[in-house]
Design brief:
The protein contains 14 helices and 13 strands. Strand 4, helix 3 and strand 5 form a beta-alpha-beta unit. With 351 residues, it is α/β, with parallel strands linked by helices. It has a 7-stranded parallel β-sheet, sandwiched between helices. Strands 10-9-8-11-12-13 form a 6-stranded parallel β-sheet, with helices on both faces. 50% of the residues are buried.
Length: 351
Amino acid sequence: MTDIVFILGTRPEAIKVGPVVAECRHLSINVNVLFTGQHTSLLRGTPAESDLADSASLGLVSDGNVDEWIDTAIARLQIAIIERDPQVVVVQGDTMSAYAGAAAASLIDYPVAHIEAGIRSHNDFEPYPEEWIRCAISEFATWHYAPTSTAYANLVSEGIDKNFVYVTGNPIVSALARYAPSARPVGGGNGTIVITLHRRELREGGQLEAVIESIIDTAAEQPKKLFFWSAHPATRSLIGDVPGNITLTEHMDYVSFVGMEARADGILTDSGGIQEEAATLGVPCAVLRNVTDRPESLAANVARLYPPTREGANDGMQALIRGTIPRHPLNIYGSVESAREIALQLQKVVA
């Protein structure tokens, strides 16, 4: 009998859950990992490859139709869960795969545990569909592993029984230590600004072209600064010509990217996960979003929020160039023991 089935579908999930799976196996918990196939080549080139190497995949590649994909995934996952017959189904975060896994388990009366529970922006449309997904998963789940005290408070305020909510820390901190141990906080940056933009709201909100132009214009005015832009495939075609001090790439492996992130003067991003990494590594972070679901960074003053507009992009870039956001590594999202803490909580569930 399988103790736990982990259901994953995206590369960030694999990186965060890999250390949890490793810790569960260290505790002699019988683990089965099931990928939906939402992201193709999920493990290729990721450091979680070895920890999740014996996993299975349903091959359900997403074509962008959220509702249709989720319906198909729920049906397939119900069959896969019944075949494995676990004591608990574990999902992480706020992806389509996490929702489908939690919904599938709930429909056939298998209990659900949710890693990274309670993260909220308190705005149904930013980020979309992640905000409604994670709220829905909270309704399905029995055990809620909150990364921070803020996430814990969110869940309790929503009526979740606090006896089933645990502050465990976020496993991204464990992943940094396990998969990229050479990426450590440094006293000063190397003159590089890292840029990552991928949010659906930005792409569909009508401001993306203006934001891109603003970033390029600001970089052109700073020829002695270097800018590394990890461009999402959906935005790469819109970027066009860039000045010589901007390096464009569509993809970097995790270890290389985190190493660059740790040494950078700062990072302009709309990614929640990168906000967590930046705070842990002490990298000043300009967040290009109207609202953030990681308010801990803002409260600690290691990140600042800028609207996703031409002016907001320029202001965020200028803050990083001038060094006005403090460089200060913090454990606000957990410790290197976060993955082990989650595994210990799961051990109690399956004991």
